[in-house]
Amino acid sequence: MTATVPISFEFFPPNTPVGDDKLKLVVQELGALKPDFFSVTYGAGGSTRDKTLKTVQAIAAAGFEAAPHLSCVGATRESIAATLATYRAQSFKRIVALRGDMPSGTAVAGEFRFAAELVRFIRESQGSGMSIEVAAYPEYHPAQRYAARDLQHYTDKVKAGASGAITQFFFNPDAYFHFVEQTQKLGATVPVVPGIMPFHNYARIAQFAQRDGIDIPRWVALKMEGYLDDTASIRAFGLDVVEALCKKLVAGGVPGLHFYTLNQSALTLELCRRLQPG
Fold this sequence. Notes:
With 278 residues, this protein is α/β, with parallel strands linked by helices. It has helices spanning 17-31, 49-61, 77-89, 115-126, 147-159, 173-185, 202-212, 218-226, 231-251, 266-275, and strands at 7-11, 37-40, 66-71, 94-98, 131-136, 164-169, 192-196, 257-260. It has 10 helices and 8 strands. Helix 4 (115-126) packs parallel to helix 5 and helix 9 packs across helix 10 (266-275).
């Protein structure tokens, strides 16, 4: 925990032994900050299920709380129940429950149409001892045409039994605070933790943002693009932008910060250092 707010970090399952070794080092480096937990993503249609399990097991073995993601697209109740049984046997007490993206070339959604149905299934089968985090979209889900409908989908997940939410990354703090205000009016009062994406690679982050309907302020984009291949300037400016975002969020009373690390530690470590008081 920082001296400001609780923190958590997200990883994706490595694909190679070299990636496994690198992530072990990253876990130790970020673990020194005493995060609440590390979460590990789950590929489309459960494509990384075994790798996700292996990664959270390694994190738990290192002495940290691990939270596997679980998506339901293309899944059956039996397959989800089997995955939950595996997680329960490993004593994982926190899950990030998502609808997930359809795997490429697949047209079958599975038995769960919406994340709220998955959350309800987990809550009913696992009881109150399991903490269930869900996704939130301050700038609304990219596939949703109407804001009101997206807010209702989120509220449905909370009413189905979600313990809290982690947002998609964003760069506009007003969007986050507006989302929280609107969902609380709808009765969704669980903690909503902002997802923070450091500028690991501007071109890659810009691609993510375009795909997911996330607004990168024009002045930030123009300045980033103006740096061209000046990686030092991009890194320095990106840190300043995200530091300012985090400080506005902390000043506004957020319940925590969740960093999308992309399996790297340097930028997140520096941001957390800057967020320490004094």
